[in-house]
Amino acid sequence: MSIAKEEGRRLLDTRPDDVSFEDIQYRIHMREKIERGRRDVRDGKLLSQEESERCMARWLDG
User: Fold this and answer.
1) Rounded to two decimals, what is the model's pTM?
2) CA distance 8 to 35
């Protein structure tokens, strides 16, 4: 069984019986974002504080 399938089953098994599709979708989405972030850190895809601040300034200034 794939890791994704195991994680999906674990997620469903730990939720209450009346869980909504929205809750399941949100939790899967958040899990994927966390895994992507971990992978980026592992692969060295990081920004320094200064680089982050420059990016934010560009985004906010338009």
Assistant:
1) 0.69
2) 14
Mutual orientation of helices 21-42 and 3-14 as an angle, nearest 10°?
Answer: 140
- The residues, any chain, with a CB within 8 Å of residue 15's CB and separated by 6 or more, are 23, 24, 27
Q: How far apart are CA 11 and CA 13, in angstroms?
A: 6
3-state secondary structure the chain: CCHHHHHHHHHHHHCCCCCCHHHHHHHHHHHHHHHHHHHHHHCCCCCCHHHHHHHHHHHHHC
Summarised one tens digit per residue, pLDDT across range 1-59 is 898 899 899 999 999 999 999 999 999 999 999 999 999 999 999 999 999 999 999 99
